[in-house]
Write a structure and sequence with these properties.
Two copies of one chain form a homodimer.
Chain A (H helix, E strand, L loop, with lengths): L1 E2 L11 E7 L1 H9 L7 E11 L3 E15 L10 E7 L13 H7 L15
Antiparallel strand pairs in A: 1-2, 2-3, 3-4, 4-5
Chain lengths: 119, 119
C-alpha cells in the first residue's frame, strides 16, 4: 500500500508500506483472534515519485505489535513499539503504547489490527 | 515499487511489485553472484489508485527465476517461469524462458537480475 500526500495518516505514514506477520499473526489476520506471540511489523518506506513509477527510498520507521495478553493488558494485550529509521533502539513510543492503542481501539472487533489480508 | 501507466514495462507489469528472495538469492543480490538453488519471485499485483492512497487489488502474475547453471545453461543458468494470477499451473512462458532471458541479458554483470536491494 502507498499512502499519498493528503491522506489522513500523512505525513507520518506517507510512503510505501509493507506489513510482515509471523505465523501466529497470520492466523489472527484470518480469524480475527490473536494468540500470545503474534507479531506484526509495519514498515514505512519513503516513496520516490517518478513520472511512471514509485520507488522505495529510505526507511522512515518500523512499528511493531507484539501480543502478550497479560503483559500488555492495558493496551488490548498488544505491546506497541515504534523505531526510527533503521534503528533497533531509537524508540518513537514513550508512553507504553497508549497513543497507538487509542487509535487501534477502533479495530476492537478485528483484534485491534487495522491490516487486512489481500483477498 | 509501483509501475504506473506510461512506463515502458506497462501494461504487462503495471501495478504494485513485491520481490521475494530465498537465502541464496539474497546472497546473490548482495554479491552479484547467484549459486544453484537461488530463487527470486516477482509478484505483480493490480494497483487500485485512490485519491490519497494506492491499494492492492488482485494478483496479475507471478514470475519465478530459479538458478541451476547446468539445467538452464542456455538462459544464463536461470530457469524462468511465469504464472497467471494465483494459478500454480497456468504458465505464461512457453518458450523455455528465451524471451525472458533476451531482456534479462542486459543485466549480465549483475547475474541477469534486474532487482536491487534497497540501500
Amino acid at each position: 500500500m502507498v499512502i499519498k500526500e493528503g491522506h489522513p495518516f500523512s505525513p507520518t505514514f506517507q510512503g510505501i508500506h509493507h506489513i510482515y506477520a509471523n505465523k501466529k499473526a497470520t492466523h489472527g489476520l484470518n480469524s480475527g483472534e490473536y494468540l500470545d506471540g503474534a507479531v506484526l511489523i509495519f514498515d514505512t518506506i519513503t516513496s520516490i515519485d517518478r513520472k511512471d513509477s514509485i520507488e522505495e527510498g529510505v526507511r522512515k520507521h518500523v512499528a511493531v505489535m507484539h501480543k502478550d495478553a497479560k503483559k500488555f493488558a492495558k493496551t488490548g494485550g498488544w505491546g506497541f513499539e515504534w523505531f526510527n529509521g533503521n534503528s533497533k533502539s531509537e524508540k518513537m513510543v514513550e508512553d507504553g503504547g497508549k497513543a497507538c492503542f487509542d487509535c487501534h481501539v477502533s479495530e476492537k472487533t478485528r483484534g485491534y489490527v487495522f491490516s487486512r489480508l489481500r483477498k
